[in-house]
Write a structure and sequence with these properties.
- The radius of gyration is 15 Å and the shape is globular.
- The protein has a single domain, classed as 3-Layer(aba) Sandwich (Rossmann fold).
- By secondary structure, it is of the alpha/beta class.
- 44% of the residues lie in helices and 11% in strands.
- A five-stranded parallel beta sheet has the order 2-1-3-4-5.
- Strand 4, helix 6 and strand 5 form a beta-alpha-beta unit.
- It comes from Paracoccus cavernae.
- This is GDSL-type esterase/lipase family protein.
Length: 174
């Protein structure tokens, strides 16, 4: 399984055994799955960067692909239609040959201005419906839920200052 994305996938700032893909591999192993999760995350990547490098990443000939991109696009203020076009290309190439794809959506922190969470959610759902992929609507949902005033630790304890890069405690909630 190719896990294709940005720093959230790569595990930027985390020890190699504590990032998202390492956590996923441990979960797969615990389930007895005969699967290998391949980390194709690249810190700082955007949907456009992913559009450029997806063919190269598919050289691993995965049986399935997880696509997690968009956080850096939101941070840079890119327009949703441009992000959606780039993700269209990525998903189309990832699905080539009948591979199943899991699209992982991201909702930026609520402190970001000018981005409608409803519009972002609608984009993820449109892409998943258009390409008939599985959808995890919001990778951050467990992190934000655990950060609530009565439900868990403060956001700073599970996220770094950007609120977009997880600390080890945060990656295990994803």
């Amino acid at each position: 399984m190719l896990v294709f994305g940005d720093s959230l996938t790569e595990g930027y700032g985390l020890p190699p055994d504590q990032g998202l893909v390492a956590q996923l591999q441990r979960w797969l192993d615990a389930q007895g799955a005969d699967a290998q999760a391949i980390n194709a995350g690249l810190t700082g990547d955007t949907s456009y960067g992913g559009r450029i490098r997806i063919k190269w990443a598919l050289r691993h000939r995965p049986d399935a692909v997880v696509v997690e991109l968009g956080a850096n696009d939101f941070l840079m203020g890119w327009a949703l239609p441009d992000i959606e076009k780039n993700l269209d290309v990525i998903i189309r190439q990832a699905k080539a040959g009948g591979r199943p794809v899991l699209l992982v959506g991201i909702t930026p922190p609520k402190t970001m201005q000018g981005i409608s969470p409803d519009d972002i959610a609608a984009m993820w759902h449109r892409l998943a419906a258009r390409h008939e992929t599985l959808l995890l609507p919001d990778l951050y949902a467990p992190v934000w839920a655990a950060s609530g005033p009565k439900t868990g630790p403060e956001p700073q304890s599970i996220c770094k200052r950007t609120a977009c890069i997880c600390r080890p405690k945060g990656s295990s909630r994803q």
